[in-house]
Specification:
Helix 7 runs antiparallel to helix 8. It is globular and about 50 Å long. It has a single domain, classed as Vanadium-containing Chloroperoxidase, domain 1 (Up-down Bundle). The chain is mostly helical.
Length: 193
């Protein structure tokens, strides 16, 4: 079994487990505790984290794909576009199935810094960031520094969504698993060099 297949399988398992747990719709005690702890980090981090979370948006998909095309990595660009788009579409569809509410004053115990609409599981931002990170890690990211930066960006997107009060821990974990699954499948199918 190739590493891409093992990664996809592991991500699929995590996605299913977080989905089953998130389907309870109310946050677990541990999620509330962790969510409050992350949310209670000092004010003033909002602006940098709002910038970082843009790594998990549709614009990021376009920018990464264009950057890969400019450097002549056409299949990697296709994999990034496919993975990011699939992660976004799948997360949007899964949210409508699971219908998990987002953190609010009553459930978080604090006023969220960002009031987001719609349902919560899985996090689209975390899914897109993880999808792009997975494609980059499996195709072009070399060396410890490059790989570390790619991983740090995806992790920071997930933490930013919890810090801002838009998601619970299972939401970003499920989104990250969905993104890793989408990224590894895109690399398996398109086989970028």
């Amino acid at each position: 079994m190739t590493s891409e297949k093992r990664v996809a399988l592991g991500a699929g398992v995590v996605l299913v487990v977080t989905g089953v747990l998130a389907d309870q719709r109310t946050p677990w005690s541990l999620e509330r505790t962790v969510g409050r702890w992350i949310h209670d980090r000092p004010d003033g981090l909002e602006t940098p984290l709002e910038v970082i979370q843009q790594t998990g948006t549709l614009l990021a998909i376009v920018l990464v794909a264009v950057g890969l095309v400019v450097t002549g990595r056409y299949r990697a660009a296709g994999a990034a576009a496919a993975a990011g788009g699939a992660a976004w579409l799948a997360s949007s569809g899964l949210k409508e199935i699971v219908e998990r509410p987002r953190p609010r004053l009553a459930s978080l115990g604090r006023v969220p810094r960002e009031v987001a609409d719609g349902f919560s599981w899985p996090s689209s931002h975390a899914a897109i960031a993880a999808a792009l990170a997975t494609v980059l890690l499996l195709t072009i990211a070399g060396g410890r520094v490059g790989r570390g930066l790619v991983i740090a960006a995806a992790v920071l997107v997930a933490l930013a969504r919890v810090y801002l009060g838009a998601h619970w821990g299972l939401d970003v974990l499920g989104g990250a698993a969905l993104g890793v699954l989408a990224g590894s499948v895109a690399v398996l199918v398109l086989q970028p060099e």
